[in-house]
Amino acid sequence: MTGQHGVSSPDRQETTSISVTESEAQKSTPVADSTKPSTSNEKTTKRPRLRPRKAAMSLTPTAITQLRNLLNQPEPKLIRVGVKNRGCSGLAYHLEYVDKPGTFDEAVEQDGVKVLVDSKALFSIIGSEMDWVEDKLEQRFIFRNPNIKEQCGCGESFMV
Questions:
Q1: DSSP classification of residue 39
Q2: Dist. CA 76–CA 79, nearest whole Å
Q3: Which residues contact 88 (CB under 8 A, 6 or more apart)?
Q4: Coil, strand or helix: which one is 2?
Q5: Under a CB-based contact definition with an 8 Å cutoff, are residues 116 and 102 in contact?
Q6: What is the pLDDT of residues 86-122, one digit of tens each?
Q7: Using CA atoms, how far apart are residues 27 and 106, in angstroms rounded to an integer?
Q8: pTM flag (> 0.70)
């Protein structure tokens, strides 16, 4: 092969070029490699397998027990976890009964208990752990959220 001004370069190998018309070059058909014979038994490339996703939120055993008690009703309902703009830090957790899941709600199922995570709150809740705590004065669900950047003194509201 000749180099830049028609001078032959010994360290470069000659390659063959294939000339095609512009319309043929625009087509999206694969070009067969002429160096190896084509066989009909060639393996196709495998698609990468999708890994199972991690749940948006995890539940502790005490939370599962309490949620199971709340969901054992004559009329079946679901519990949706979300956040509302409230409190001194900006956001507070909100639990509500719903008849059916929202269009983009994320379902978290653990040990036979199904909880929905509101799609608008998913960014704030993802990676959290839901727990049930009983003290002498109160009983409530608490959330251990690794995304919290700031939390108010009473612990009711947070900011991510």
A1: -
A2: 10
A3: 152, 157
A4: strand
A5: yes
A6: 767 678 888 888 888 888 888 888 888 888 888 888 8
A7: 42
A8: no
